[in-house]
Each structure stands twice: as C-alpha cells, then as structure tokens.
Amino acid sequence: QVQLVESGGGLVQAGGSLRLSCAASGRTFSMYAMGWFRQAPGKDRESLAFISWSGGSTYYTDSVKGRFTISRDNAKNTVYLQMNSLKPEDTAVYYCYARLVESSGYWGQGTQVTVSL
Fold first, then answer.
1. Which long-range contacts (CB under 8 A, 24 or more apart) does 67-74 make?
2. Which residues contact 71 (CB under 8 A, 6 or more apart)?
3. Which of 117, 44, 115, 41 has its CA nearest to residue 83?
4. Average of pLDDT values for 11-39?
5. For residues 35 and 20, is the Cβ–Cβ distance under 8 A?
6. pLDDT given for residue 85 in this prediction
7. How many Cα atoms within 13 Å fall on the side-chain side of residue 31?
8. 78-87 as b/e, with b when 16 or more CB fall inside 10 Å?
9. CB within 8 A of 77, min separation 6: which ones?
10. Do the Cβ atoms of 45 and 37 come closer than 8 Å?
11. CA within 20 to 30 Å of 98's CA: 39, 50, 72, 91, which one?
12. How far is residue 62 from each of residues 10, 19, 59, measured CA to CA in Å?
C-alpha cells in the first residue's frame, strides 16, 4: 500500500501562485507515476498533470499547460505541483494520485484551493 499526504492548499488571489506537495510512504519502491487531479463542486474529477517516477516524463491537460508545473523529488518520495497565474476557475479540491508498477492506484485526502477575484 501507499499513503499520500497533501499540503500547500489555501486561499489566493487571482494571478497568484501556490505550490502543492504530496508526500508518499509505504510501497514507494514500486512507484510508476504520480499525478494531480482536481474536483470542483458539481463537476467530475479532472486530471491535471502526471510525472513518471523513473524518467521524469510529464503530461499536462490543456487547461493548465504553461501555468502549472509538476515535479518530483525521488529522495523525498514527494511530488509537487507549482501553480502560477491562478484563476477563479482553478478553485477546487486538489488530489494527489500514485500509480504503482503493478497498476494499483492510490489517492490522497485532498487539499482545498480557493482563488478569489
């Protein structure tokens, strides 16, 4: 099993920045990739960004390309999401996700991000 603990959410004005962190523990030696999702009230959960654990390849959904950056620190078993130029429509609960080599997936508890005008 893998446990994920997110931090870094909060309230920020439009145009501001936040950095989310997600620390993984447990079977991290089987880590394949980690990523971030978000879910706004009344909407489906949306994938945002992924990073492979070995080579560091990244993927971004179009809505966050150029504004969000995903990175990892393998030594700390931590993935980050740097969010710049935040917009009110970025307001959501942000979830960390970890996928292991054997295809098992795990979710963090979520952290609230609120962007005000």
1. 68/36, 70/35, 70/36, 72/34
2. 51, 79, 80, 82
3. 115
4. 95
5. no
6. 97
7. 30
8. bbbbebeebe
9. 23, 24, 25, 28, 31
10. yes
11. 91
12. 23, 19, 10
Residue 114's pLDDT is what?
98
Q: Which amino acid is it at 114?
A: T
Q: Are 70 and 35 in contact (CB under 8 A)?
A: yes
Write the pLDDT tens digit of every residue in 56-106: 899 999 999 999 999 999 999 999 999 999 999 999 999 999 999 888 899
Measured from the Cβ of residue 65, the count of other Cβ atoms closer than 10 Å reads: 12
- Which two three-digit tokens encode residue 36? 């971030």
